[in-house]
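ingest -> validate -> predict -> emit
validate: passed (alphabet ok, no gaps, 69 aa)
predict: started
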Amino acid sequence: MTCYFRHLTATFNEAGIEVTKENRRDIDKIIHGIMEVDYKNCSATWKKVKERLVDDKDGFISDLRQALR
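emit:
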């Protein structure tokens, strides 16, 4: 779980999201949902997140913020 979180620190900071031990799993599930990848499939999720960050970083951040409301 959350194998890619260390690569998203700057993105989380930009989105104003504080990742804690308590909310990591929820954030991970949300990201899997946004990327439409089965939960716990870390490699496939990270691959899609990287592509999305290149193509539409602002959109990804917006989707993440909205889902965390």
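The radius of gyration is 11 Å.
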